[in-house]
Amino acid sequence: MKKLLLSLPITAALLLGACGETAVEKVEKSDAPAAAEQPKKDEAKKDEVFKVGDVVKINDIEYKIKSATLGNGSQYIEPKSGKVLTLSIEVHNKSESKTFVSSGEFNLYKGDDQAESYFGSGDKTLMGDLNKGKKTTGVVEFDVAGPGTYELIYTPSFSLDNKEVKWNIKVK
């Protein structure tokens, strides 16, 4: 009981310290030399929708969906809807502190219908602490009916403003 009482204030302080307003911007890759600095990138519009391959910066953390592939799932856990959509996501922590990344911050929709998460492939799930200046790549998987256009929505866990970042995911 004593441990619980001591850990609650510490946990609350960490959560509140990580909370703040979410800044979202698309990162443009440029071949221009560093001396010819581009003007500072504008903050992404609230309704801007990204696509596979775009690098999106959210509070000094860069997210890139490297690929979106359809598969049959594992031989032991068959997807209920028929197929598994696997998203390979690279995360680069450019902030000054450790951050937590989780596949649970992502939701997938086809129209208004939410897809269920799939946890059967054994691939490296996107989850865990990421130290400052480091990168990781992991997968987020969903149980889907098949090919089509899906909407992936990311909502940062430690944000007070509940901003959402959206990607259109087209798979064949």
UniProtKB/TrEMBL annotation:
What highest taxon heads this organism's lineage?
Bacteria
Q: Does the keyword Calcium apply?
A: no
What UniProt keywords apply to this chain's record, in alphabetical order? Signal
User: Is Signal given among the entry's keywords?
Assistant: yes
Q: Which InterPro entries match?
A: DUF4352, Immunoprotect_excell_Ig-like
Cite the DUF4352 domain residue spans from the record: 50-163
Q: What is this protein called?
A: Telomeric repeat-binding factor 2
Q: Which organism is it from?
A: Kurthia zopfii
